[in-house]
Amino acid sequence: MDSIAGLLDGPRARGAFLLRSVLDPPWSMRIEDEAPLTLVALVRGTAHVLPDADGAEAFVLRAGDVAVLRGPDPYTVADAPDTAPQVVILPGQRCVLPDGRELPEMGDLGVRTWGNSPDGETMLLTGTYQLRSETSRRLLDALPPTLHVDAASWQNPLVGYLAEEIARDEPGQEAVLDRLLDLLLIAALRAWFARDETHAPGWYRAQADPIVGPTLTLIHNNPSQPWTVATLADAVGVSRAALARRFTDLVGEPPIAFLTTWRLTLAADLLREPGTTIASVAPQVGYSSAFALSTAFKRVRGVSPAEHRSLRSISDDLLRSA
C-alpha cells in the first residue's frame, strides 16, 4: 500500500458523500463542510471555483475537467464569480440558506441528484471524502489547496460513467460508486503529479526509481518484516551503502526513518479500529511487543498509543455529532 493507496484504502477512508447537481444560471453554492478532501467533476456547462484558502486562485471548470480541493477551507462553486451564494453546505452535508435558515424542501431531482432544473445546462458531480486516516496525511500534506486537471490534458471516460452511475439505485450501488470515485480521484492525482511544473514530492517521484521504488513497495506492503538497510538492499539487489544514499537523496530521509514513520502511521490507524489492542497491533507493524510499540510511538509521535486512541475517539465523536 503506497501513499495514494493509503488515502483510499486505509482504515476509515470510506464514507464518501456523492451528489450530482443539475443547474441553470444563476446558481451559486457555498461549501463550508470542512471535509478533508473533495473532488468536483464537470459533466457539462461551466463552473467557477472560488476558494478561500490563502494563495489559492479562482479557476473555471469546463466539461470533462476535474478539481480536487483540500479542506478544511471553504470555497464557492458558481455559474459566475459575482453570483451570490444561494445555499450553504455545512458539516454533515447539512444545507441551509445564506441567512442560516433551513433550506426549503426543493431541488430534489431524483437519486443523489438535486438542482434548480431537471435539464439544467450545467451538471457537476461532487464526491466528498470524510477520511481521518493517518495513512493519508503524507499525501494530503503534499497537495495544494486546489488542483485542476483539465479535460484537454488527459483522456479519461470516468467522469461520464460516474455521472450515469450516480443516479442509479441498484443492488451494490454504493460499492460501485465508491470504486468509481476512487478511480477518478487516483487518475486525477496521477495526471496532476505527472506535470513537470507540479514539483511532485520526493517520495512520489521515487516510486518510479528502479532501486528506491521496489524498496518503498517492500516497506509499504510488508511493515511487519524485521527490515534493516542490509536486508532491504539485498532484496532489491544493491549494496547497503548504495541503497541508503539513493533512498535518502530521493525520498528525503533514510530508509529506516521512513520505515519507522510508516509503521507508526499504520499503528495509529489500526488502534482506532474496534477491538484492537496495542499488543495485537504491535506484530502487524513490526514490533515485538506492546511495550516496544508504545515506546516508539511515544518517542516519535509525542503521545502514548492509549492517549492517541482517546484523542481520536473524541475527534470522531465530534465529527459524528456535527
Provide structural commentary.
The protein is of the alpha+beta class and 322 residues long. The chain has helices at residues 3-9, 137-142, 158-165, 173-193, 202-205, 212-221, 229-236, 240-251, 255-270, 278-281, 290-301, 305-321; strands spanning 17-23, 28-31, 37-44, 46-51, 59-62, 66-70, 75-78, 87-90, 94-96, 108-110, 113-115, 122-129, 146-149.
The chain-level structural class is alpha+beta
- Compute the number of strand runs: 13
Low-confidence stretches: 317-322
CATH superfamily of the largest domain: Regulatory protein AraC
User: How many structural domains can be distinguished in the coordinates?
Assistant: 2
Distance between the termini: 31 Å
- The number of helical runs is 12
Q: What layout of secondary structure does this protein have?
A:
Elements: H1 3-9, E1 17-23, E2 28-31, E3 37-44, E4 46-51, E5 59-62, E6 66-70, E7 75-78, E8 87-90, E9 94-96, E10 108-110, E11 113-115, E12 122-129, H2 137-142, E13 146-149, H3 158-165, H4 173-193, H5 202-205, H6 212-221, H7 229-236, H8 240-251, H9 255-270, H10 278-281, H11 290-301, H12 305-321
Parallel strand pairs: 1-11, 2-8
Antiparallel strand pairs: 1-12, 2-7, 3-6, 3-12, 4-5, 4-7, 6-13, 8-9, 10-11
Describe, in short, the structure shown.
With 322 residues, this protein is of the alpha+beta class. The protein is built from twelve helices and 13 strands.
